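Hello Y.,

Per our agreement to keep a running log of every chain we model this quarter, I'm adding this entry. I've kept the format consistent with earlier entries: sequence first, then predicted structure.
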Amino acid sequence: MVSLLVVNMVNNLRQVAQMFFAVYVWGDSSYVTYIGLSLVVGMIFGMAVCPALIRRFDKKYIFITACVAGSVSSFLPFAVGGGPVPGLILLGVSFAFTGVTTISSTSMLMDAIDYAEHKLGFRGEGVVFSMNTFLNKLSSTISKGLLGVSLTAMHYVDNMAPNETVQTGFSAIVYVVPAVCFLLAILPLAFYRLRPAQIETIRAELENRRTAEK
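Predicted structure for the entry above:
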């Protein structure tokens, strides 16, 4: 859930900063629409392919790989430059990896709920997913706070003329900070040790318990 909190900031930061970025970096507010399209297309693609990946690979490693790839694809436009077209393509790619992390981490939450039932004797879906909803809202709030701090640090004022500081600052918010968020999201998973074989054993034991209780 901590990993979800951090990785959700990838999308939230871009959503709160996209208008500033489109105007001051790409020079046209109409690019906001294309950024939104890259988010939708990328997320849908990532979510669509993730179930097939889960059937073949460990969810934890899928999440970690998607975070590393998402970080690289997020940082590349800042490092190499380029205009809106390569920027939108790489944004779409990074959004796809965000979609993969969303599905794989949600699946890991379900595994954790089964594990908790196995160890503690009760299922905590309500607590877990209520907390997950809260963390989504918290991530959005933190993203808006970071944007506010960034605007202050850049000495931004409404309708100011573009300058190098503002352009670099908004580029960092859209590209660099999300790249860092992807990497930070990996760290909490050092404490996640459930493996597919263990989960299958736990679910079999839970099914036996439920059958015996009937």
